Amino acid sequence: MTATTVRAVLFDTFGTVVDWRSGIASAFDTVAARHSSRLDSVHLADAWRRRYAPSMQRITSGDRPYTDLDTLHRENLTSVLAEFELPFETSEADVYDLVHAWHELAPWPDSVPGLHALKAQYTIGPLSNGHTALLLEMAKSAGLPWDLIIGSDLTQAYKPDPAAYLRPAAILGLAPAEVMLVAAHNDDLRAARDSGLATAFVARPLEHGSDQSIDLEAESDWDVVADDIVHLAELLHPRLAR
Amino acid sequence: MTATTVRAVLFDTFGTVVDWRSGIASAFDTVAARHSSRLDSVHLADAWRRRYAPSMQRITSGDRPYTDLDTLHRENLTSVLAEFELPFETSEADVYDLVHAWHELAPWPDSVPGLHALKAQYTIGPLSNGHTALLLEMAKSAGLPWDLIIGSDLTQAYKPDPAAYLRPAAILGLAPAEVMLVAAHNDDLRAARDSGLATAFVARPLEHGSDQSIDLEAESDWDVVADDIVHLAELLHPRLAR
């Protein structure tokens, strides 16, 4: 850990705090059931998620003005539906529900207790590509006890753009080194460290399912490496160890 | 109440949620004690607060770019100290502590329980002239369980500028009528209603001390009129009445 005292612990959300894959697969299942049909819902969830980073990259590179995730998710869903031949015609309500499913993803079992433990000592919030309204709805439905929510609409930047890491620190009135990013993704932590933030890796070996091959472990000497968010809270204030 | 369902209940903070006058008077007392002296601290707190609205008015009128409350408070304190002859020389630490005292004001006794009750059913947050970092520190020290904090630095607007009311609604993804402002100040509610927000008056008859003469009661047919924030929570979901 750096000598600077961390005052805010901010979290990547999709994958790190909430389980997007199960939640989105379940949303596809719900839509299929509505049409008395079945889908390879996990496959569709993965295909949808694969379009996530490239769609933001066009914004980070300056080819496109800031556009929020609801819009990107809807566009990407349109391509997924065009690519995969579904056994039924999707309605506008289906599309709405699928896009909206990203607002109501369930937390990993350790997320809520871990965040409560951290909140006693640190400012906690998301540092996510989600916009504020999406992250608020996620927090209310999942019970995430954030102190505040600074969405990508407020920073007008998507990770790994340095502004996505530096603007939240500035809004908090903190130096970058006083802010820690917690993520299950080594590339996110690399970009955060490049911007001067402290870093914590939390393993999420089931984010991509049981045959996950990436981000199974820390790929650098991140300031903290934890098994989950409860463990992270223990490492950050060891006096509260279980 | 309007037919539209309120989804977010946002609060004026200084005076409505926290007791600025006692807190600032106490900060002057602390500074005086440091110099083995005494001050008419309530008088100084009132003199400082009187400069609050005019200093923001210059920004709302466009005469000055957005400048946060820490800076305005510091400038206004300099005028107060120039006007009142203090029996000692104030240090930079004194000035810092006084400006910082606005970050750590105590809540009225009903604020925290009332906010917890409201949070179960609504999105809650401040709609204050404070900037995000100030409001965050206030929330952490006073235990205010906001869902999110959208400070004036994020809206770049001070009340009663319509943008100060409309931008938080837009960030929340809500129509103005889906947002309720709660305030102990009739003029704040007038401006909120002019922008289409729902309104709730909460009486704070001791905000300005025991001889307060303004804002003792609702001066219009606000959507809700409550004795305090616990009462407001009861009125907004009557099934939880005590």
From TrEMBL, chains A, B:
It comes from the Bacteria. The keyword Iron does not apply. The keyword Heme does not apply. InterPro entries: 2-HAD, HAD-like_sf, HAD-SF_hydro_IA, HAD_sf, S-2-haloacid_dehalogenase. It holds the Pfam family Hydrolase. SUPFAM superfamilies: HAD-like (SSF56784). This is 2-haloacid dehalogenase.
